[in-house]
Write a structure and sequence with these properties.
- This protein has 78 residues and is α+β, with helices and mostly antiparallel strands.
- It contains 2 helices and 3 strands, in the order βββαα.
Length: 78
């Protein structure tokens, strides 16, 4: 699961272990989807850009994983 912190006044997803909730960006269930999600996280971590990844990429990756596809390499403009 990849989540982004939000403000208490925003509509947030309640998640165990996160007191105020968070914006859910990526949530993978099942063996295949979880492996693909972890592989994407590992690639970004190895490139030392995991903490710089834009939330839009995680939403895109989530959409790809739910369709059992691989996320495309994209460059999002901020």
């Amino acid at each position: 699961m990849v989540a982004e912190a939000g403000q208490p006044v925003e509509q947030l997803t309640r998640t165990p272990g996160i007191i105020t909730g968070a914006h859910l960006l990526l949530h993978a269930f099942g063996m295949i989807r979880s492996r693909r999600a972890l592989r994407a996280i590992d690639v970004l971590s190895d490139a030392h850009i995991l903490h710089e990844t834009h939330p839009a990429y995680w939403r895109h990756a989530h959409a790809q994983f739910t369709g059992l596809g691989q996320p495309e390499r994209r460059q999002f403009l901020v």
